[in-house]
Hints:
The chain is of the alpha/beta class. The chain has six helices and six strands.
Amino acid sequence: MEIIYDTNFIMSIIKFKLDLFAELELILDEPYENIILDSVEKELKNLAKGTKKSSNEAKLSLKFINSDNFHVMKSPKGNVDDVIHSIADKGTLVATNDMELRKRLKSKGIKTIYLRAKKHLAIG
């Protein structure tokens, strides 16, 4: 199974200091591969250039996704949410906190992983 992560989800993990892999062990009972789209990586790089507090979170997020635990996948050009929606299928989970994207994916029968109460992950 593949888990595709969006930008906001990765930054939320960093912001709330959540142990992603420990949380995934609690909610998943099968092997998975962590996928980051190159467009998500590009968004994080752009955010990291800023001067806001979020730029620091973006820098930490880039370090996190550039570990051996993630595979960066080339993606088609376009809006990141639209790309995720178009490439996700039944064998994919999408990690996102974006309510609109979650609704769109649910209508396709695709489950999402999201942050609940800023403390743990849930599947819906």
